[in-house]
Please model this.
Amino acid sequence: MAVASSADRRRGPLRARTTAAFTGLTAGFVVALSLLMPATAGHADPKPSVKQLEKELAELGKESDKLIEDYYHGRREQQKAEKAEKAAREKLEAAQQVYDRESTQLRAMAVSEYIGGRPSHLTLIADSGQYTSTMSRMALSEFLVSQQEARLSGFARVRDEHERAQREAADRAKELDATADDIDERRKKAEKLIEKIKDKIDQLHKAPGRRSDGTFLPQLPGGSDNITPRMRLVKTLIEKRFDVPFGIGCYRAIQDGGQHPLGRACDFMLSRGGMMPTAAEIERGHEISEWAIKNARRLGIMYVIYRQRIWHVSTGGWRVMTDRGGTTANHYDHPHISVY
Model:
């Protein structure tokens, strides 16, 4: 029967904890995905009601929360492993310094004995790096013998500590790598499920005033924000799905020939004061634009403008717009969304 090494015994507890955590994670993820899988051909269920979809969303939300909780638990485990690995590395460095110092002193003693004509096993120890408990003491004084034995004993302890520190550092590094891989996989699963939840939420909503042929009835603006119900739905969904910290501008009284005075357009700002957005905010603008295009026909979105380009639902694809002379005028600091 194979005997487990000391390294395997040290890794055992961490591996057991990781396995237990991932067993629960995998089970939860399978349940969540089963809610999203379509029925097989020939056994299609009736179209779910809004109440059923809301129930599914609630279950998915619980699974998502569990995945996130497991993810942060993994992060804490990683931080512990990083701390232990750092301590082991520092311990190894300290042991190496002592090891080098003791080796130098031991070699000096061996050389001194050799020059003095008193060869012993100490000379062989210094040259080969091997250790022995037997020495030829016949030609040495009692004082030198005791001095050598004390030095050899100390050197052996340093050597053993040095080897233990090396093994511990290697074990911690392996644990750290395994934990990091587990966390990355957990994060990807959580993000995938969260995205499915968000898509499911979007599917619950249809643009008001849609005719059976896919066209849309005209709507009047209303409410304190002076926008149409269709525009308000799009604005609300984007606010829930994306963080828009620099504000959303919709109704404008100025008659410029656009959709703002009609309450059918909103600007989702990525910066303030006409400043060029950061790289992260530019990416957020792309995400908002892509979401609008993906949901355009269902939500009654007519066109999207972003970064001096326009996408129209009737033609599809982006086309470049003429230069209007500024960051905001060219929509570099915000996506513009107009609805029917």
In short: Residues 6-37+48-203 form one domain. The chain has a mean pLDDT of 78. The beta strands are 248-249, 265-268, 301-305, 309-312, 318-320, 336-339.
